[in-house]
Every structure is written in C-alpha cells, then in structure tokens.
Amino acid sequence: MISSNAKNDDCQGNTVATIEDLHKSYMLGHMELPVLKGLNLSFYEGEYVSIMGPSGSGKSTLLNILGCLDKPTAGRYWLGDDDVSTLNDNQLSAIRGRQIGFVFQSFNLIRQLDIVENIEVAMYYQRVPKHQRRQRAILLAERVGLGDRMKHRPFELSGGQQQRVAIARALANDPLIILADEPTGNLDSQSGAEILEVLDELNAQGKTIIVVTHDEMISSRTHRSVHLLDGQIERIQPNGKG
Amino acid sequence: MFSQLAAILLISLRSLWMHRLRSGLTMLGIVFGVASVIAMLAIGEGASRHAQEQIARLGSTNIILKTVKPPDQEVADASEQTIQEYGLRYNDAERFRETIPDAQVVVPVRRKPQQVLYQSRRITAEIVGTVPWYTELAPIEELLGRFLSPMDIHYSQAVCVIDETVLNNLFKFDDPIRQDVRISGEYYRVIGVVRDISAASEINDTSSLHASSQGNGVSGSVYIPLSTMKGRFGETQIQIGGTSGMSGEKIELDEITIKVPSMEHVLPTRDVLANLLEQHHKKKDYQIIVPLELLRQAAERKRIFSIVLGSIAAISLLVGGIGIMNIMLATVSERTREIGIRRALGARRSDIIVQFLSETILLTLIGGVLGMALGVVIPVLVTLFSHGQMPTVITSGAMILSFGISAGIGLTFGLYPAYQAANMDPIESLRHE
After folding, report:
1. Is the minimum CB–CB distance between A132 and chain B shorter than 8 Å?
2. Cα separation of B217 and A141, whole Å?
C-alpha cells in the first residue's frame, strides 16, 4: 500500500503531517485543470521544510491544502490524528485554529486591533478565557521582542515588527505546524534576516515549520527542500542540517 | 456566556467607531424611523384620547336628541306655507318622561344667539332656555349664586345665570349678582354664575354638540328659564329676504337630553326613543346622538388610524433597514481580507455571522435608542407649538414596540450581509487587496 510506504519509509521521528496521492484540479468552465498530480510527502515532528518551485508549480495550492484552507480533489491528508480530507467546514476551521499557525507574506494583521489583541484573535476562536488569552498574548509579544509595543496598532510598526506579531499570533494556540508563505517577501534584507532567525529559533525549540519560498537563501537554512514542478514533486533535497 | 457577549459587542462597537461618519449616517434612517413611529403613535393616541374625553364629557349615559331641518324635498311639499314648522316638541319631552321608565332626567333646551348688554358693554351670547335639572347632565359647575329653580320656571321669572365668558366680558370687576342685563330689549336679573368645565369647548367640534349655535362671533352662554324663553321670544322666527321673500320657522325645542342610569340602558333606550319619534314625527326633523356610540366609533377610528400610521412608519423603517443592509454589504466587501484572516485563524462561519450580525444589531439598537429620545421630544414640541390643542400621549407600549422593531430590523437586514461574509472563500478573501 502506498499509505503504509509513505508513513513508514523514514524513521526520523513521528510524522505530524502526511499527504498521500494528493490531487487537486480546478474547473475552468468545462475544462478540468489539474494543479497537483498525486503528491506523497510526510513531515516529521521538529522538522524545518521548505517547499520551492517556480510560479504555477502548485506551491500555493499545496500550501492552501496543508493549511486546511482548501480540500484536495482526491487523495488523503493526515494532520496529527485527523484525516483532514474528510472534514467539514466547521471542523476545518477548528483544525486551522488549533493545529496550524499561519505566517503570511503580507503579515495580515487586523488593522483596527492593537498588537496584543491581534495575537489574542487566534485564541478567541478557540474560546480561551479572556484573562488567560491576554496573559498568553503578552507573553508571546515579549517573546518576539515587542514587549514595549503592545498597545500599538499594526500601521505604527515596521514590516519586520508586524511579521513578528504575525509569528507570535501563529504560536498562540501552540499548533502542530507553522506554515509560512514567503515570510520575508515584503521585508528588507535586514528585517528578513531577523525574521529568519526567529524561525530558526522556533525550530530549535522543536516547532515543525513548513516554509514556501522562491528564495534559495531561505531554503538552505531548512532541513529539506521539496521542489515542485508542474504539480509533481521534482526532487527532495536534504540540506544537511537535519 | 455574558462576558462572551460583552466581548462581541465591544468589538462591534469598535468597528462602528472606526467608521463613525458612515455608522452615524446609516443610523439616521433608523433614528428617524423609530422617532416617527413613537411620534405618530403619541399624536394618534393623544388625539383619540382627547376625542374620547370630549365625548365622555357629553356623558356616556346620555342620549341627545337635536332638532334638524328636514331634508329639502319635504320642505318643497310645504312650500305654500310661509312658516315651516319642525323639530322637537314639548310633548315629545313629556312623552319621554311618561313612557320611558329608565329615563332619570329629561332636559329640554331651547337655544338662540342674542346680544346681551350691561351698561355700555355688550356681547353676543347664546341664550339657553332650560330647566333646573340641566345641571345634572351638562358639564357646568356653579361658581356664584344659584342655578335656575323650579319656581323660576313656574313663574317664568326674568332671571338668568351667566357663564364665565359673559361675566368677564360684561362685568369685569363688578359683582354681577342682582345686576340686570338687557337681552332683546328686556331686563333679566343675574342670579348666578357657572363655569363650563368642558375645557376646550370653544375649539373642539364635539363640544358643539352641546352648544349648537356657537361660532359666528357667539361666545358664552346665558341660561334663562325655558318658560320665560317661550314667553318672551316665542317659537317662530321670521327671516326676511331669500328667494321667497319672507320665510319663517317654528321650532319648539332645539334639544332634549335624556339621562339613563347606566351604560347598559343606553342602546335599548335609544331604540325606544327612535320608535317613539318615528311614530310622532312625519318628517325626519330630529337627530339622535349617542355619546356611547361616538366613543365606540372613536375607538374604531383610532384602530384604523393606528393601522395607517403603522404602515407609514413601517415603510420608513423598511427604507432605513435597506440603507443599513446596503452599508453592511459595502462594509463586508471592504473587510473581505479581515474575514479571510479570521477564517485562517480558526473562525467558523458562525463566528463571522455573529460578528457582522452583532454589528448591525448594535447599529440599529443605538439608532433605536436615539430615535426613542427624538421620538419623545417631537410630541412634546407638537403639543407646545399647537398651544396644547394637539395633546400627545407617549405610551410605554410604543417605546417597547419601537425598541423591538429596531432590533428586528438589525436582525432582518443584517442576516444577508453576514451570510455573505461567512460564505466567502477564505483563500479568495486572503488574496483580496
């Protein structure tokens, strides 16, 4: 069986996420446009993986499916103990909130909320009590070095600081994986380097991180780089760090 | 649970506050809608209560018969006669007293506008010829001296009782009692002063049921014994002029009021009266007025009035609601990205619905409360500027109703935008700029 192969091939540790023969197609009128054509991949606990590939290779689609924002057309996706491909919208929302921490290229903070409140939002939807939420948000803000900016609104911060808030928010519910989509794409090289250091640090503390990027500089910092081409895995390249 | 709700409302309030101008303008539709509901209900309620009080003053246990000129066709039959004879008679009153056991009081009245003079002052007042028990059913109160007595009637005394209007016009600061006033060339001694307690008698048409010939510069009343009136003024009135050169009218009584012991007696007695009158009057030269029926009609009118006002208010609220829906749809599309972020962070569809719905409901509730405040002020101003002629009554029912309506509007017109927000594709909305 393909599934048993995929799950048991490597014995680097526990898998946190596994995709099996994953297909995704979009309908363009009456034409079926396949984007992902049968991917098999496992992510292990504490791993730092980059997904690379040119535009149109299916990176974003894969990221959306890994982030439970989209469902595969065929195939399976296991996240922790859940078979995500069978879940309904409410269950997917719950998985997103609890198991996944998103870090976006354009930060995606909510502009009418201050830093602490932005971090709290993720916990709000998990019904974490108010005082507990606040406490943890402050702790996380301090952890990413924004302890003195907690009452600021996003537009009062630099890009690098905003991305730190986004990382703090991604950590709020202690998720299984952190999904970062071009996390340094909107940053100058200085801030970008700082953000990458934060990610390295998180990984060193045991967080599983999947980062989607064009940037060789970033992928070279990860354990493995998965190269996509035309909706298929072209090659998986270990970077000698794992 | 309560803190959860408070948190949702606080977040909504902040979103609304971010777009103060837009929220405020959107709210105006609801503010005016709710204000108009309350104001209209208050004015409607006030008008109907006013009318009911006026009618009630006529006495809900009274039946009023009035002389009316018979229809023209029947007048044509009697065109040879120079003097037209019609109306209620003394023997009608007599007959009622004898045949209707339920009638507690039967009061015949004759009315005629005349100039009343005292020294150099004059006033055109209504001369009311009546009987001592008139006071039992009329809305008057004795102020000075006494009202007419049976002896006055028996001896056809030349005495009169004046009301406050006449008192103020003729006597100013003099004591009127035992003074003589001149009416139509004859002297009458003032024996008492009364006050009309149907407060707005000069302005409201329902009170003119009592004072039939008021208007045309006639103000105030002078009460004299009915027998004196019959003796001195006669019953025939000649008018010179018109097409036939000279015409005359002979009327014995202008009005007979019958009082029955309770409201249950009103309608049966009315039927008996109608029968009696039909038997003895060939022409329909009388009118039966039943204040109790007027009250019922007033209640029915109020119901219709409320339906009409309610529809108008409903339309204005509908317009306000559509305005709110419009703005909320704009807000939702403007905040597409925020919706995407929240969805990515684990918000369920229902969380998004709750967020936008609570914003809309909060908007309409604030609008509703402001509208209630405005709606309370408007009726007060209406009453003030109409110098009390348009009374208004604000009922707690109207307040509760309009509060409920504004919440309902928020719910109804907020649902669609909220569903739109919730059903957005998170991937698409995250890409939205």
Report:
1. no
2. 87
Q: Which chain A residue lies closest to B351 (C-alpha atoms)?
A: A125
B35 at A interface, C-beta within 8 A: no
CA distance B359 to B136: 63
Residue written as tokens 């009062």? A156
In tens, the pLDDT along B172-219 reads 878 888 989 999 888 999 999 998 776 444 333 333 444 444 456 778
ipTM for the complex shown: 0.92
- State whether residue A35 sits within 8 Å of chain B by CB: no
Q: Do B18 and A112 touch (CB under 8 A)?
A: yes
SS3 A17: strand
Provide Rg for chain A, Cα atoms. Answer: 18
Q: Do B337 and A108 touch (CB under 8 A)?
A: yes
Contact call for residues B296 and B385 (beta carbons, < 8 A)? no
Compute the distance between CA of residue B111 and CA of residue B224 in angstroms, rounded to an integer. Answer: 10
Contact A195, A167 (CB under 8 A): yes
Its pTM surpasses 0.95: no
